[in-house]
């Protein structure tokens, strides 16, 4: 790679161009192909230590359905019933369904495919950069070197490691594949617009719509593709458009304006008064904090260090005001200055403008008004493409006398980020080492601490894991989930009720804190305990009943996430059923169904009263469940089949009951 960048070759002459150049007929040279293979080999080798990582905290929810795949119908059910995002992400789920055999014993098979997708995306970016340089930017010297450098800077960026090493983040990388294909298709078609205006204008709009839909059905961020193409048109692509007959001259309106309005409509959802109820921050705090996070992303992309990278950033300090913390105002001003310069100097500094506008546009969905979590490294997978293109252009836009010097600097920088990437993936590949390092780097991260405790537990060091959680809980007295986890682990390790009983009776957080998903994890673990466990004996059942009652009495439960309301009520229903309290069981099942209408709970609403001879109540519940059937046609068919069978069984039980003499 370095030899290729430094190889002496005459730069092409800049051409006077007012419209798009014809598509280049030049083919890549053998040296270019060799350089690209070297880049891809470096990526594969650098990522190889991380393949041993295995599955992570976000994987279970999306992969657990793979267990049910045994034929085409079950595969289609898995693909089209996803709930990871508003659109269901069926294309990403289809790629997982094709590897259903790898869950849950062979995560390395899924991760290897993730890595292949990343290398494919690197090839696509290289093709896009080459097409840009050859066909649209004649002043850029050495287009093949520029394309290779852009691909290497992006493909080897340590900031993007988590996008491939998190199994579930194939949603991000595969969505990027469709976005890159859409960009490449756009650049291939654009030079032909003047010669065939009607046909090419339709093809431009149609291809952009097609790849936007494909990308969005993989992950919703793919809907930003038209906005990113617009960034190209505003910066590095030629200013003048060929004169087109009416109405074809208005093709940009359909290609850019309408999708942008759709994105703005989605973002308006974050302005709802109750959108942030489940979060510990509000809309203003999120926007202030994201300004700092975006600057941090930029810093880590350009100057990466292994100790800055990792999956756990839930401890990121929230900005409560412009000067709390003080760097909030600085980051807001910096971003504003970057935008102003990018817009005002977009023709004088096209690559700077591209980097700025592309990066911020790429973060428009996940880093603005929507009430998502604050910080994830994989969100930079597409936004950093513009940064890589701009950085790669530097050696070939400086005065020719400095080209060799800047190429040497570029090679040294590539070596640096490659070393950091290898360090990062090596840490990822060692579960215990990574857990310890991430917990040390993020001592206030709940997830990092829990991950470290779980790693210690897997090593047979459960007491150490418990003490790790206990120390964290003492430092964070307001955190509810971890405190409950400490009490539960203490009671379970020692097979003793008092630690959990004391927590239930005396800890105010149980009744006043904001419940989180850790509560659901603990409740699910309790329900899966063997029947002879002390928790499920007489005193234990009383204790668990008190736990459910205390959780339900918490006023913040109703304001929290519906998944948490669901799991707490399902837990309370299970305990009430164990105590043979049918009335309480039905009450909690109804509340669970209202929070999250799932078929399994709906069937219980029908079968439990029927088993007690309450046939009228069972029929009422059957009608209630039917009214909540999902719109998804595949899910709806499954519901109809199950509910029809439940109705048949209910009629049979009713008939048998009437046949029994009084």
The major sheet is characterized as: none
- Write down the Rg: 28 Å
Low-pLDDT runs = 6-11, 13-25
Dominant shape: globular
Count of strand segments: 0
State the share of residues found in helices, binned by percent.
Answer: 55-70%
Q: SS-based structural class?
A: mainly alpha
- Kindly estimate the percentage of residues that lie in beta strands according to DSSP: under 5%
**Oligomeric composition of the shown chains:** single chain
Average residue pLDDT: 88
Count of DSSP helices?
30
| Whole-number count of domains | 3
Distance between the termini: 90 Å
The helix-strand sequence is HHHHHHHHHHHHHHHHHHHHHHHHHHHHHH
Keywords:
30 helices, Serine Threonine Protein Phosphatase 5, Tetratricopeptide repeat, 662 residues, mainly alpha
